Amino acid sequence: MSDRDLKLNGLSRYAKQSPRLVLEEYGHCEVPAGCGGVVLRWRNPDQPIPMVERFFSGNGKLDYQGLDGDNTLFRSKQLVSYGAHALTLILHDVDPKFAMVLLAAKLDEQYTRILRPQGDTTILSLPDGTWKHTLVAPEGDAWQLPGFDDRDWLPMVEKPINSHSKQYGRDIGYWTQDILDQGAKPLGIDTRHSLVRQMRALFGKQATVPAIYIRKMFSLEKNNQLG
């Protein structure tokens, strides 16, 4: 007889399990006495997987943050389906001397533990050639989609974090350190870029870049071994 069958008076007798469904926290409630509850729901594993994202831009104004053309600027959690994806950013008034991207995103562990998807379950800003940028405004919105040809875009490079970010207070510092602790690196643009040199020649070394367009490709695939 199994241990589960022996627990005749335990609540665990009524616990439900499934190798192909994911039980996630859907909501919760709290009352002043300290008691409360949690609402759980089953999710189909073929549905998009939640991804928690932390992003810090210590340089420039972030005007757009998207996933496959969908504006996610004010969302800390994204839904990622299986397949190829494009994470895109637009920043204005960027100082070429400093980093402007520091990002760490991770798929919900409730899903990855059960479904064990293949591909990029964790996304970090790294100087590995997969983070690309251009200083020339792209035509249309195709650059925000996975199938866009970005071979002519330049790779981002590791840069120091702008020291002026400290003026925003302790919360920003803690947020930034948490992203760094996950292994992300602050990224920026190479000051040897021809357009950067032209702007510095015209406006001096303190000149900022009017806009920078950033792409990061990643993919997620099913684990076929699970059947």
How would you characterize the overall build of this protein?
By secondary structure, the protein is mainly β. The protein has 2 domains: 11-43, no CATH class; 49-222, no CATH class. It contains 4 helices and 15 strands. The strands form 4 sheets. Strands 4, 5, 7, 9, 11, 12 and 15 form a 7-stranded antiparallel β-sheet that branches. Strands 6-3-8-10 form a 4-stranded antiparallel β-sheet. It starts with a helix and ends in a 6-residue tail after the last strand. Residues 4-15 and 164-171 have low confidence and may be disordered.
Topology diagram in text:
Elements: H1 3-6, E1 22-30, E2 36-43, E3 49-56, E4 61-67, E5 70-71, E6 77-80, E7 83-94, E8 102-107, H2 109-115, E9 118-119, E10 122-124, E11 131-134, E12 154-155, E13 157-158, H3 170-181, E14 187-188, H4 194-203, E15 209-221
Antiparallel strand pairs: 1-2, 3-6, 3-8, 4-5, 4-7, 7-15, 8-10, 9-15, 11-12, 11-15, 13-14
